[in-house]
Amino acid sequence: MRVIDTHTHAGLNWFEPIEMLVCEMGLNSVSNAVLIQHGRPEYGHYDHSYLFECLSKYPGKFKVIGIVDPSSSNSVEDLCRLKDQGAVGIRLNMKTHALYEDPFSLWNKIDELDMVVSMMGTVDEFGSQQFIDLVKRYHRVSIIIEHLAGGGESAGFPLNGKGPSSGFEKFHSAMSTSSFGNVYLKIPGLAEISNRPAALNEVYDTAFYDDLPPLFEIAKSYFGVERMMWGSDYPPVSGREGYMNALLGTKNHPTFQNDGELEYILSKTARKVFDFD
After folding, report:
1. pLDDT of 159
2. Range of the domain at 248
3. Angle at Cα 98 formed by Cα 90 and Cα 178, nearest 5°?
């Protein structure tokens, strides 16, 4: 079964060089990946030359999602330049959306250029009226919610803010944006939604964790597999359960009942959204 990883990072000044990712992909039979420029838009790395070198070095293997500096006086021109160089989308952050001098001019250009938006945020932000208004206004733009809408509360990835907690009312609210057909969801490794157990089992599966919240199940009930995609978050995932286990956590999750459902999550949705061959 083909596997496409929709959330990876590479760099020389942070994280790991591309060859490390290529090695992990080879070991785990992952054919393609999306390279997300590292950093949040408000304090990221705005020189994308290394990522575009990766596109040239490995033709057809990668797609690039860039970031645009909110302090730039020419953010729309910066976006156009990224598109011309080969980027298929832009990473935005609900927290700092208002930092752009004219955020709607940027969104209008994203729409015009037929680019994808990979969106950071929390369950509160993804369930907000502000996000709903954006999704409705830019209904032709594919908007991808990252990290299962923020990761699990007190889990391996709390950096996007407070995540879903028992009861999951806020998570349900964030997932309800699935009613808009242009919204997609990235699902991560299980260590982003649950804490590392004190004692490690020999076999890595859902029983590995002491208390695994039903976020995959809830997400599937809203989005269906047709608008879900897997993203490893390499290389930060190496400090959690590791690349192989992040993939196994999705492949072996009981909520995905057959190969047909897994095919959407592991490749078919990504092929459609990112236009992989």
Report:
1. 46
2. 4-274
3. 60
128 secondary structure, DSSP code: S
How far apart, in whole angstroms, are the C-alpha atoms of residue 241 and residue 59?
30
Residues sharing a CB contact under 8 Å with residue 69, sequence separation 6 or more, in sequence order: 41, 44, 46, 75, 78
The identity of residue 127, as a single letter, is G
For the stretch 18-50, pLDDT in tens is 999 999 999 999 999 999 998 888 888 899 999
Residue 36: closest CA among 4, 61, 11, 73: 11
Contact 260, 2 (CB under 8 A): no
Both tokens assigned to 37: 């420029």
Q: Which residue has the higher pLDDT, 8 or 196?
A: 8
pTM of the model: 0.95
Task: Give the chain's domain count.
Answer: 1
Q: What is the pLDDT of residue 32?
A: 98
Q: What tokens does 240 get?
A: 């959690």
Give the single-character DSSP code of 212.
Answer: -
Instruction: Write out pLDDT tens, residues 150-166.
Output: 866 555 554 444 566 77
The domain that contains 109 carries what CATH number? Answer: 3.20.20.140
The residues, ordered by sequence, that sit 6+ positions from 209 with a Cβ below 8 Å of its Cβ are: 190, 194, 195, 197
Tell me if 123 sits within 8 A of 173, measured CB to CB: yes
With a CB cutoff of 8 Å and minimum separation 6, the contacts of 62 are 32, 33, 34, 35, 51, 54, 55
